[in-house]
UniProtKB/TrEMBL annotation:
Superkingdom as given in the UniProt entry: Bacteria
Record domain DUF4126: where: 8-170
Protein name in the entry: DUF4126 domain-containing protein
Keywords: Membrane, Transmembrane, Transmembrane helix
Keyword Repeat part of the UniProt annotation: no
InterPro entries, alphabetized: DUF4126 (IPR025196)
UniProt KW Transmembrane helix keyword: yes
TM region positions: 42-62, 74-91, 97-117, 138-164
Pfam family, one: DUF4126
């Protein structure tokens, strides 16, 4: 496989996990687009996929509740970073420890960028309600996962665009 393809796939899935942890894991497991190491092959089993589907629905529903959403986001940071690292490691096919760290860094950066931008979005776009913000996050995860699987190299451009926009907004806020 082309190095750009596997890095794009891993980065795109890790980036998608920053918005919703479970969706990219389900799609990557179901499509078998990543080659999980033997210790993680159970992630592709039917019972686990069904459990992850239920968990994904719960994640989507919980995140729609404004009071619960913040606590859910805090708790889910560690899960999102771990899932992003696992997906990156499995996609790229490198040492799991190194892959989890690199993928976790991609996921973590996008999580904290999103958290840093949230007050700016609420201040600059007061009509932006919680439900619309969560819908955009859901769509971001779905679109980035599909891009990562269908056109992996393009996910690198999407992530670079997200990083660039975060830096530009941070400069405006400062």
């Amino acid at each position: 496989m082309n190095i750009l393809w596997v890095i794009g796939l891993g980065s795109g899935l890790a980036g998608a996990a920053a918005f919703r942890a479970i969706f990219p894991l389900i799609l990557a497991s179901f499509t078998r687009v990543v080659n999980f190491p033997p210790a993680l092959k159970w992630l592709q089993s039917t019972p686990v996929l069904l459990f992850l589907l239920i968990l994904m629905v719960v994640e989507f529903l919980i995140d729609e509740l404004p009071g619960v959403s913040f606590l859910h986001s805090i708790i889910y940071i560690a899960i999102k970073v771990l899932v992003g690292g696992i997906l990156f490691s499995a996609a790229v096919g490198i040492n799991p420890f190194i892959g989890i760290i690199l993928g976790g860094l991609i996921t973590g950066f996008l999580i904290f960028s999103r958290l840093a931008l949230e007050p700016w979005i609420q201040r600059e776009q007061p009509y932006f309600r919680h439900l619309e913000y969560q819908t955009i996050e859901n769509l971001a995860s779905i679109v980035l996962t599909i891009i990562a699987i269908a056109v992996p190299w393009f996910s690198l451009l999407v992530i670079a665009g997200l990083i660039y926009s975060t830096i530009k907004v941070a400069q405006q806020v400062a």
